[in-house]
Amino acid sequence: MEGRVAEGLRGALGPFGFEVHAFKVGWYNAILQPTFHLPYPDDTLAFVVLSTPSMFDKALKPFVKKERLKIIRDPVDQCVSHHLSRVKEKFPDQKVDVIFDYEILPSRKPKFLAQTAAHVAGAAYYYQRKDVKLDPWGKKKIYGVCIHPKYGGWFAIRGLLLFPDIQVPFLEQSAPVDCVSTEEKRIELLEQFNFHWQNGRYRDIIEVKERYSEEQKAYFATPPAERFRLLGLTQ
Q1: Looking at the chain, which terminus has fewer C-beta neighbours within 10 angstroms, N or C?
Q2: What domain count does the chain have?
Q3: pLDDT tops 90 at residue 67
């Protein structure tokens, strides 16, 4: 069952520059505090959805062109929402729940922890302070970051697709690729991400197969309120 669903999702989302990776809700819940648990049985089938560098040209630009008059909030969020909601039509006999990366609970906590989901699904390795043996940061707060084996830091985690009626007790977990394997590189990664993230150098911590185009970099470097202008939209 998982294979059929995964194939359907890849067929629906792959051509638009998205990647999907399956996981069981129980793998995610097992490593988090109860306040962050997803409210489904452990064997429930879920997928984490990533956008790759090609999403900008394959999904965002055509979406903006077609829907220009209907875009009222962040164009990327709306574009992702459009594509993930259309997935439901692909599975008319299935209940599909969608959680987007920007959704928050009334407590202001995110509805799901994106980087943890990407890690348990084997999509991207979530490098954290605990992955460094002798850490140099003392009392500083150090945030972790996911690195994709193919795109480095040039990707984004966009949402979860959950199939409440599909239980997959025998799904096997694949570990994410540990592509930043030396202590020095991990320190450099966390250092760059925490203290110099604006220059984006952490994204190239490994040899990447593809990165954002100059146009896409400029878009994401622009404050959200001014992005409409870049896409030729007026607010």
Answers
A1: C
A2: 1
A3: no
- E-only strand ranges, the chain: 18-24, 44-51, 97-100, 125-127, 145-147, 156-167
* β-sheet bridge partners, residue 44: 167
Both tokens of 118, joined, read 């990407």
Domain range spanning residue 220? Answer: 1-231
pTM comes to: 0.94
- Give the span between the Cα atoms of 229 and 226, in whole angstroms: 6
Which residues are CB-neighbours of 134 under 8 A, at least 6 positions away? 183
Residue that has been written with the tokens 């199939």 in this structure: 163
pLDDT in tens, 10-39: 999 999 999 999 999 999 999 999 999 999
Can you give the pLDDT at residue 234?
Answer: 58
Q: For residues 210 and 154, is the Cβ–Cβ distance under 8 A?
A: yes
Query: Is residue 70 predicted with pLDDT exceeding 90?
Result: no
